[in-house]
Each structure stands twice: as C-alpha cells, then as structure tokens.
Amino acid sequence: MREINVDTITDEVARLCIEACYYLGDDVLAALKKARANEPSPVGQAVLDQILQNAEIASRGELPLCQDTGLTVVFLELGQEVHIVGGSLYEAIQAGVRKGYKEGYLRKSVVEKPFSARINTGDNTPAVIHTEIVPGDRLKITVAPKGGGSENMSYLRMFSPAAGRQGIIDWVVECVDKSGANPCPPIIVGVGIGGTIERTTLIAKKALLRPVGQPHPDPEVAEMEAEILERVNKLGIGPQGLGGRTTALAVHVETFPCHIASMPAAVNIQCHSARHKEVVI
Amino acid sequence: MAAIKITTPLTDEVIEQLHAGDNVLITGTIYVGRDAAHKRLVAALDAGEELPFDPRGQIIYYMGPSPARPGRPIGSAGPTTSYRMDPYAPRLLEVGLKGMIGKGNRSQPVREAMQKYKAVYFAAIGGAAALIANSIKEAEVIAYPDLGAEALRRLRVEDFPAVVVNDIYGNDAYEMGKAQYREVDG
Ligand code: SF4
Fold first, then answer.
1. B184/A235 touch (CB, cutoff 8 Å), yes or no
2. Mutation test of the interface with chain B: which of A146, A235, A240, choosing the one with the most B Cβ atoms within 10 A?
3. Strand runs (DSSP E) across B62-151, as ranges?
4. Does domain B4-181 fall into CATH 3.20.130.10?
5. Using the beta-carbon criterion (under 8 Å), do B181 and A184 form an inter-chain contact?
6. Is B25 at the interface with chain A, CB within 8 A?
7. Which protein residues touch ligand 1 with a CB less than 6 Å away?
8. pLDDT, tens digit, for every residue of A74-85?
9. ipTM value of the model?
10. Which of A50, A271, A272, A275 to mutate to test the pocket of ligand 1 (most atoms within 8 A of CB)?
11. Any chain A CB within 8 A of the CB of B105?
12. Which of A47, A68, A243 sits opposite B178 (nearest CB)?
C-alpha cells in the first residue's frame, strides 16, 4: 500500500483551483487562436481578440479569467493500492477548495438550500466530487470549476433507439442553437450517449476534460463529432452570439453501452473559459 | 468599427443615436446588481419604498465580481446571463432606468419595455472579466452587503467596452449577427 497524506491532497487541490482559474490551457489558447484566424465576422474577430487578451491579463496572476470561478467539480481516479492517511479524503478536498478560493481571490458562488434560503456557503464548498477506483498506486485529481452560465445550458433526453445517430445529431445542434449567447460562445460541446440517466450526464461532462479538438479514438464517434461541429458552426451564433462562424471550438462525444430499450443522451456546454487542471500524486 | 463614447447618465438624445451592433465605450457611474439584488429592488418598489439609488438615466450592470485583491478596486468583473433579470427589468425601466449590461437574449416583455421607455441593452463580453476589470476605476457596495458578491454596487468606469444588443428601434444584434452568418434553414 502506498500512503498519501490528506494534507498533500488539500494543498494540491488548492493549487489546482487557483491555477485553473488564472491560466487557460494551451489547448484552449491554440483553439482560440485558430478560430481567430478563420473567423470572417469583424465583430467575431474583435470578440476573440478580447478573449485572448483577457487570458493574457489573467495569466499575470492578479485577476481570474472569469469572475464566475464556478462550482468546483473534482474528478478523482484513485488507485486501489493507495492508502489515504491523516484524515478523510473528501474532507481534505473540501478543505483544498476552501483554501484555494480564499487564497486565490476566487468568487464563492455556492448557495445552500437550492429552492429556499439560498445563502452563500461562504467558501465555495461543497465541491462536487466524482470518484473512480482504478488499478495502481496513484491518485489523479482533476479540478474543473464550472461556471453557472454554461452549466445552465445543459440538456438530457431519453431517446427511443429508433431516433438513431441522426436523431442525436439534430438534437445536439438544436440544443446549441437555443443556448445562443448564454453559455459565452465560443463553446465546447460535451455530449454523452448511452448508459443510464446519471452515466450519460457524467460522460457528457467528462468529455469536456479532453484536450480541445482531440478526436475520439473510435472513428465512428470522431466522425459524429466532426459532423456536429460543422453543423453547429453553420448556425451563425458566433463569438458571444454576435454573429460569426466560431460558435464552438470543438465537440467531444463520449459513449457508454446502454439498455436494449434506451438511448439516453446528454449535452453539457463548456464556455470558452474552459478551466481544468490536473495532478497525479 | 470605431466605438462610440458615451457617458452616464444617459439622455434620450444619446439613446436615440445608439443602434444594435454599435460598439460603445462607457464612462461614468454605473450600478451593479444581479438576481438577489433585483429581487429586493423590485420588492422595494412594490412596497412603495425608495430605491438605494435614483435609477433615472442610469445603467445597471448584471455582474457579481470576484473578490478584490488589496490595492485593486474590484476583482474580475464580466457580465452574467441577463435572462434571469427579465422578470424584474420592466419595473426598473418604468422608473427611469436607461441601460442594462449583461449577456444573452432578453425576453419579449423586456424588449417591449425598452422601446416604450427608451432604454438600451448592452452586451459585455462574457468571460473577458479580467479585461473588463481594468476599465473599472472605483467600486463601492451601496446596499445589501449581506448578499456578498451579489450586493448592490456603484462603479466608476472609464471606457468600459460593450456592444449595443437592443436599441429603441426594436433591433437585436444577436438576431442580426446570426442571420448574417447562418447557413441553415429556419
Ligand atoms: S459562461 Fe463561462 S465565461 Fe461566461 S460568465 Fe460563466 S464562467 Fe464566465
């Protein structure tokens, strides 16, 4: 058994929260620059320039990329040969979120009691934690703060299998179309297909963690991603919804086997402030 | 596309000159409030109470900033999605509010109220929050401090970048932009 102390986990989570909110990934920056080069709309070009300029200002470490530093989503891949010592794993993660949001001057955007007293918890906890037990003796932590504007543009549909590939493609395009400017385009579209209600939404979200524009290893899925992306970028929504050809930087689809009678699908939209950082301990 | 410089408070003459799609740079005082603050503002109006600021000619920016670091007036400060303020906006336009800054579409009743009371809706660039913060020179909480990031604030801005989305002539920059680049039917 390899031991990992909870204090290390707290410190790493705090660091990842801060880094995610100040430093946009190189993959996102490259995708934005490519989009800028191909965008025909003058307004769209100006918006993309400002987004790139914003990333440059944020990288100086004083002002986060976006004021909405999100609800903190944490993905864990916990090696089955790891022994967590010194306290509770989940509490260590919550402590890391608390620390990172305080020390990084990040906005606390979580309220208690969703439909009644929406009182701010004051420290951005609780984070939403997803844990997967994997072989090995390592712990991989991915911190992905998710803004409300893009998270609100999420969709779930339990398709009849007869709807097929085309039914899903048409629906995803429709979801992006009706989201318009709300999720801060250019966006990354996360799509989950298959599984059960909770699995399909989880893989839709996980799809957002893939490096931007990296196609799915299964050519059939990759082809679907390319087809959706092309159609989405013909919608005309453009950067910030002000018109143009860059509505999405990428479409990422993940799939999971499902019941003979079902074909669930989910869409989770990620704004251009596509923040996630990971570490392997 | 040269930007039009405007200063607050906004007069009808200025508003008449603004058209959907125009780039503007706003200078002067603007107010900040989002969902929770709007709920209280409208409750105050309903109760016949005075608002914490005189809305006539003013602009409300839908925003909840990140915390200010020492030595800075404010943290990052980009717009939030406007539709959540749609149920409250017409009431404020009725009492003289002249501008709103946010992101995303407005409802039909809000668009109608803008035409009726001569007000405009601007979009700031969502997620360009660090860039926008640099145009904010002063910030102060003027009411509802218990709401934290959602408290009502007064800002002094210089050349705050925004785009006119809805003008008083019924135009909508989102619809216009989309129509121009759309390559699908319907
Ligand atoms: S959708 Fe993203 S970029 Fe837009 S305000 Fe929310 S977190 Fe920021």
1. yes
2. A240
3. 99-102, 120-123, 136-143
4. yes
5. no
6. no
7. A 66, 68, 147, 149-150, 183-184, 271, 273; B 78, 126-127
8. 999 999 999 999
9. 0.92
10. A271
11. yes
12. A243
Residue A118, pLDDT score: 86
Backbone angles phi, psi at B94, to 5 degrees: -60, -35
Could you say which of B21, B63, B181 has the minimum Cβ distance to residue A236? B181
**Which position has the token pair 């039909």?**
B108
Amino acid at A229: L
Residues of chain B with pLDDT under 70: 1, 185-186
CA distance B64 to B79: 8
The low-confidence residues of chain A, meaning pLDDT below 50, are none
Q: What's the distance, Cα to Cα, between the start and end of chain B in Å?
A: 29
Domains and CATH numbers, chain A: 2-20+64-146 (no CATH), 149-273 (3.30.1330)
Q: A65 vs B129: CB contact, 8 Å cut-off?
A: yes
Atom of ligand 1 nearest to the CA of A183: 1
Distance CA B157, CA B138 (A): 7
Looking at residue B1, its pLDDT comes to 60
Q: Which residue type occupies A20?
A: A
DSSP codes joined into one string, A175-197: HHHHHTTTT-SSEEEEEEEES-H
**Longest CA–CA separation in chain B, Å:** 52
